[in-house]
Amino acid sequence: MAIRNILHDDDPLLLKKSRPVTEFNERLHTLLDDMRETLLQANGVGLAAPQVGVLRRVVLVVDTNRKDENGEELPPEEAMIELINPEIVAASGEQVGPEGCLSIPGVYGIVKRPDLVKVRAFDRYGKPFEAWGTGLTARAFCHEIDHLNGVLFTSLAEKILTPEELEEMYGGGDEEEEEEA
């Protein structure tokens, strides 16, 4: 496994549409493993293959709603969902809030997203499955699938937050900031 470089918003590759995965092989598994390490190292909640320079429909999302048998939040490495060729098949509700991106470090914007999202995808072996997400997980599903279509959150933001507005929202830095997807 290797940590890959995350492309930044000035890279034109981020604005291109990704191609579907057609072969569920060792090459895909290596990409997924590398993306996992990269996402954990970057401390984000989601990562799409285009962000590491691969135009394939591959996404990782940390399910922030997953709990262990004691009701405790799972660590990111245990709550990660691999989504191959994901598509949103249902969405409801609404959330409006700050959103960031590992490819646009330090920039946050107010983005409207559904509060509940159902995604249909394949696992690393080509087996179909469905996953539900609420809150931050729903936001991350939408954000990462947007990356697969060449869409950055900044083009959807109602407003890009100034550093002062961001500091005001999070109380001067002692509180944990909204994680970057």
For this entry, give a set of tags.
single chain; 181 residues; alpha+beta; Peptide Deformylase; three-stranded antiparallel β-sheet; 4 helices
Brief characterization of the structure:
The chain is an alpha+beta fold. It has one domain (12-173): Peptide deformylase (Peptide Deformylase, Alpha-Beta Complex).
What is the approximate shape?
Answer: globular
Number of domains: 1
Overall average pLDDT? 93
CATH superfamily membership, which one? Peptide deformylase
* CATH fold descriptor: Peptide Deformylase
Number of helices: 4
Structural class: alpha+beta
Strand order of the largest sheet: 1-2-3-6-7
Q: Report Rg.
A: 16 Å
For the largest beta-sheet, the strand count, sense and barrel status come to: 5 strands, antiparallel
> What is the helix/strand order?
HEEHEEEEEHEH
Topology, number of strands:
8
Please state the second-level CATH architecture.
Alpha-Beta Complex
Beta-strand level of the residues, as a percent range?
25-35%
Please, could you describe this protein's structure?
It is a single chain. With 181 residues, this protein is an alpha+beta fold. Helices cover 23% and strands 30% of the residues. It has 4 helices and 8 strands. It has helices at residues 26-42, 76-79, 136-148, 163-170, and strands spanning 46-48, 58-62, 80-92, 95-101, 104-113, 116-122, 128-134, 159-160. The strands form 2 sheets. The chain has a 5-stranded antiparallel beta sheet with strand order 1-2-3-6-7, with helices on both faces. Strand 6 and strand 7 form a beta hairpin. The longest helix is centred in the N-terminal third of the chain and has 17 residues, at 26-42. The radius of gyration is 16 Å and the shape is globular. Mean pLDDT is 93; it is low at 173-178.
